[in-house]
Design brief:
The protein is α/β, with parallel strands linked by helices and about 220 residues long. Helices cover about 50% and strands about 15% of the residues. It is built from nine helices and eight strands. The protein has helices at about 15-25, 35-45, 45-55, 65-75, 95-105, 120-130, 170-180, 185-190, 205-220, and strands at about 5-10, 30-35, 85, 115, 130-135, 140, 160, 195-200. It has a three-stranded parallel sheet with strand order 1-3-2, with helices on both faces. A hairpin with a 5-residue loop joins strand 5 and strand 6. Helix 2 (about 35-45) crosses helix 3 (about 45-55), helix 4 packs parallel to helix 5 and helix 6 (about 120-130) crosses helix 7 (about 170-180). The radius of gyration is 17 Å and the shape is globular. Bound molecules: adenosine monophosphate (AMP).
């Protein structure tokens, strides 16, 4: 891996996944989302997927050892040699240390950590109204970005569903988990001068622009 390693940080519902899809179109690096990897394993009913499911449905984190192994295997593949955009990983200090070691083994390091800031009320509003296309993964929001026809994807006509961990009770628990387990990463990356705060309550376009600017400036300096 010789290029830019971006770690997108932010609470659930801050728009990391949606922004990541846009960013990789511009950056040309793979988008590695630990949540998507777990959901893929679950759809294939692998042992890992079935194990992870019990944590995911409760809004808990999957244990560090299996999460690290899965993500490190993914970012060790040749398509990540020129850089990668990580979304949802690391989520604990242990995972951050494991990532640092895995990158250092190849002589690399994290380039920048944009932190997408969104208030708790906004997270609840966004996630409980989120719908995802079963077929192509397109993401909608019933409040600000509804599909033209209820329950049907504008892009491919697939059926829309609500992620089981987007119900209000689980969203609250995911937020609690974020503050307890993941927010220490803010201090961890701040101390390494890698953190850049982004206002996640602006328009999608303004957030994308801020992210691209932060990544571009960090890549130039590194
Ligand atoms: P996400 O799509 O990133 O919101 O992730 C969905 C769920 O997958 C989380 O609520 C966790 O249960 C699990 N998960 C995703 N990434 C991680 C991670 N880095 N560490 C532990 N669990 C994770």
């Amino acid at each position: 891996m010789s290029g830019t390693v971006v770690v997108l940080l932010g609470p659930p519902g801050s728009g990391k996944g949606t922004q990541a899809k846009r960013l990789v179109e511009v950056l040309g690096t793979p988008h590695v989302s630990s949540g998507d990897l777990f959901r893929h394993h679950l759809s294939q009913e692998t042992e890992l997927g079935l194990m992870a499911h019990s944590y995911m449905e409760d809004g808990e984190l999957v244990p560090d050892d299996v999460t690290v192994e899965m993500v490190v295997e993914r970012i060790s593949r040749p398509d990540c040699e020129d850089g990668v955009l990580l979304d949802g990983f690391p989520r604990t200090l242990n995972q951050a240390e494991a990532l640092k070691k895995a990158l250092a083994n190849r002589g690399h390091q994290v380039t920048v950590v944009p932190l997408i800031q969104v208030s708790d009320d906004e997270v609840l509003r966004r996630l409980t109204a989120r719908r995802v296309c079963e077929a192509c993964g397109a993401v909608y929001n019933l409040v600000f970005n509804p599909p033209q026809e209820e329950g049907v994807c504008d892009v491919c006509g697939g059926d829309l569903y609500q992620r089981e961990d987007d119900d209000p009770e689980t969203v609250n628990h995911r937020l609690y988990t974020y503050y307890k387990e993941t927010s220490p990463l803010i201090g961890y990356y701040f101390a390494q001068d890698l953190l850049v705060e982004i206002d996640g309550e602006q328009s999608f376009k303004a957030v994308s622009e801020d992210l691209l600017r932060a990544i571009g400036e960090a890549a130039k300096e590194s």
